[in-house]
Amino acid sequence: MDKGKDVRVRVILECTNCVRTGVKRNGINVNKGINRYITQKNRHTTPKRLELRKFCPYCYKHTIHGEITK
């Protein structure tokens, strides 16, 4: 199979809460980074962008992590 035709592809999930708003701890802006996860998805069963609830250590809670482009 060609590389572009694989059924399973690697995707990067990024915390949408950290991207939209700056990370705040105790009312103070902290710019330590944005949490990202790497996972795989099946291109045929999930053609749209993937969104999962994952734990973000910068927000200290479970937030929605959305798929980003590489």
Summarize the structure.
The two termini are about 20 Å apart.
Please explain how this structure is put together.
- By secondary structure, the protein is mainly β.
- The protein has one domain (8-68): Single Sheet (Rubrerythrin, domain 2), CATH 2.20.28.
- 7% of the residues lie in helices and 47% in strands.
- It is built from 1 helix and 6 strands; from the N terminus they run E-H-E-E-E-E-E.
- It has a 4-stranded antiparallel β-sheet. Strands 2-3 form a two-stranded antiparallel ribbon.
- Strand 5 and strand 6 form a beta hairpin.
- The radius of gyration is 15 Å and the shape is elongated.
- The two termini are 22 Å apart.
Q: Could you state the oligomeric state of the chains shown?
A: single chain
Shape: elongated
Task: Write down the overall mean pLDDT.
Answer: 81
Architecture (CATH level 2) name: Single Sheet
- Span between N and C termini? 22 Å
Tell me how many strands there are. Answer: 6
Kindly provide the name of the CATH class: Mainly Beta
Low-confidence stretches: none
Q: Per DSSP, what share of the residues sits in E-state strands of 2 or more residues?
A: over 45%
Sheet with most strands: 4 strands, antiparallel
What is the number of independent domains? 1
For the biggest β-sheet, the strand order reads 4-1-6-5
- CATH topology-level name: Rubrerythrin, domain 2
Helix content: under 10%
Number of helices: 1
Which structural class do the helices and strands define? mainly beta
* CATH H-tier superfamily: Ribosomal protein L33
Helix-strand pattern: EHEEEEE
